[in-house]
């Protein structure tokens, strides 16, 4: 059992290494709600965030404080007031807000100062910095309601935050802002996180959600959304929890202005943040301007990824062996399906202009990404590419996947159906089936 667990841990680490490298020196804004700080597992969550910084990620942590503010108001005998979903903050409520936010900020700083980022390393110390990096302005009077000291982000001191990140510090921001005249305003943590991510041109904005994972109407978890898909969901699904709807609206706004990635991760899942960032499948919802998976021409930088993808299939005899050198020489023939920098699919197109025929070869998918129509997507892509290049017939040679290709319009042919140049290279020992499809 111990050996099995060790192997599982080793496999996870090997799979995580590319993501650890990818996130190094990248700026990430992480937003947590005040409810998270009331949970017993909050120190563990902060440890995970600190580990990100220890791995080289530049972390800005933005916290909310709604339940803490509510508690301070009750202690003072004050009744919370809301309008249009926003807190109305008068002078008395502002005192409670500053008290609650200040205590919570100190609590978070204290937990992060427990050497969480580098446990067990002598002399290692995690530094946390806070400050007046957010300039605010009042919301003013809206629909007859004077919001008084409730405000919105006016400007973010991005250079000031960057200097602290350059020094290796975690920057901790609270839902408070300051006017040029010294007034303090109660802000939305959502607004602070969103505007900071835009101002810093962050690589990622992560919302750790209290309402659970984002699901569609069939209760299936949504793992990826483009901006347009997120907009449709906001328009058509009236049953979305308000918190998730707010996060989606923020995701649409920031992805439209700045091409970053927004992650929605269920805060209640132990290690959910690390699983989302350091595993192929993740555990939350990723919102981006364009689809995360894209088909493109391969480059020399992809040789290693293609080799790793096809090598297991070569070992099973499904694909013909290709060395790295062979791949480098033929890289212009390959297309890859790229999932956020990971090569999860590939195919090659070899053309024979004298016969207007082309061979589709080396079609492969990563085991964890099979299904979902990705194989069809790659096949259709290279067929279209062959057609655009003036070829009117494509063929494949296969030993194991004959049925799959026949279901997609290929018919069994003969060796004599191949272009003469390809006939000369036919491997009699493999005895591959010849499958042919007319284009157009």
Automatic annotation (TrEMBL):
SUPFAM superfamilies: Acyl-CoA N-acyltransferases (Nat), Carbamate kinase-like. Pathway: Amino-acid biosynthesis; L-arginine biosynthesis; N(2)-acetyl-L-ornithine from L-glutamate: step 1/4. Its EC number is 2.3.1.1. It catalyses: L-glutamate + acetyl-CoA = N-acetyl-L-glutamate + CoA + H(+). It is found in: Cytoplasm. It holds the Pfam family AA_kinase. One of its GO terms (cellular component) is cytoplasm. Residues 293-432 form the N-acetyltransferase domain. It comes from the Bacteria. Keywords: Acyltransferase, Amino-acid biosynthesis, Arginine biosynthesis, Cytoplasm, Transferase. Gene3D superfamilies: 3.40.630.30, Acetylglutamate kinase-like. GO terms for biological process: L-arginine biosynthetic process. Belongs to the acetyltransferase family. ArgA subfamily. In bacteria which possess the bifunctional enzyme ornithine acetyltransferase/N-acetylglutamate synthase (ArgJ), ArgA fulfills an anaplerotic role. This is Amino-acid acetyltransferase. It comes from Thioalkalivibrio paradoxus ARh 1.
């Amino acid at each position: 059992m111990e050996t099995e667990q060790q192997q599982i841990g080793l496999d996870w680490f090997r799979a995580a290494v590319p993501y650890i490298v990818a996130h190094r020196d990248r700026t990430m804004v992480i937003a947590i709600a005040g409810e998270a700080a009331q949970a017993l597992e909050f120190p563990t969550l902060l440890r995970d965030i600190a580990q990100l910084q220890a791995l080289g990620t530049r972390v800005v942590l933005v916290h909310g404080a709604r339940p803490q503010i509510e508690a301070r108001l009750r202690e003072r005998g004050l009744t919370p007031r809301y309008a249009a979903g926003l807190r109305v903050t008068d002078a008395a409520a502002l005192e409670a807000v500053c008290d609650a936010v200040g205590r919570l900020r100190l609590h978070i700083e204290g937990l992060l100062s427990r050497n969480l980022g580098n446990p067990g390393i002598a002399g290692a110390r995690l530094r946390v910095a806070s400050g007046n990096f957010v300039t605010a302005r009042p919301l003013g009077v809206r629909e007859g309601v004077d919001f008084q000291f409730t405000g919105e982000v006016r400007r973010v001191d991005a250079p000031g935050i960057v200097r602290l990140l350059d020094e290796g510090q975690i920057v901790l921001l609270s839902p408070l802002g300051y006017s040029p005249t010294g007034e303090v305003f109660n802000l939305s943590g959502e607004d602070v996180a969103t505007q900071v991510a835009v101002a810093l041109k962050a690589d990622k904005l992560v919302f750790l959600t209290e309402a659970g994972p984002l699901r569609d109407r069939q209760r299936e978890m949504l793992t990826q959304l483009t901006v347009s898909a997120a907009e449709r969901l906001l328009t058509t699904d009236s049953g979305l929890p308000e918190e998730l709807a707010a996060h989606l609206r923020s995701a649409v706004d920031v992805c439209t202005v700045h091409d970053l990635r927004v992650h929605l991760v269920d805060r209640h899942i132990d290690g959910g943040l690390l699983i989302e960032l350091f595993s192929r499948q993740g555990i939350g919802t990723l919102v981006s301007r364009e689809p995360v998976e894209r088909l493109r021409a391969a480059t020399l930088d992809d040789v290693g990824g293609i080799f790793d993808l096809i090598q297991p299939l070569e070992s099973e005899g499904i694909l013909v062996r290709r060395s790295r050198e062979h791949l480098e020489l033929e890289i212009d023939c390959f297309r890859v399906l790229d999932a956020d920098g990971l090569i999860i699919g590939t195919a090659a197109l070899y053309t024979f202009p004298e016969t207007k025929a082309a061979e589709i070869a080396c079609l492969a998918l990563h085991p964890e990404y099979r299904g979902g129509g990705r194989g069809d997507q790659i096949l259709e892509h290279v067929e279209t590419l062959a057609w655009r290049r003036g070829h009117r017939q494509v063929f494949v040679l296969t030993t194991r996947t004959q049925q799959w290709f026949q279901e997609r319009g290929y018919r069994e042919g003969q060796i004599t159906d191949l272009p003469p140049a390809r006939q000369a290279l036919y491997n009699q020992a493999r005895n591959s089936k010849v499958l042919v499809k007319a284009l157009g």
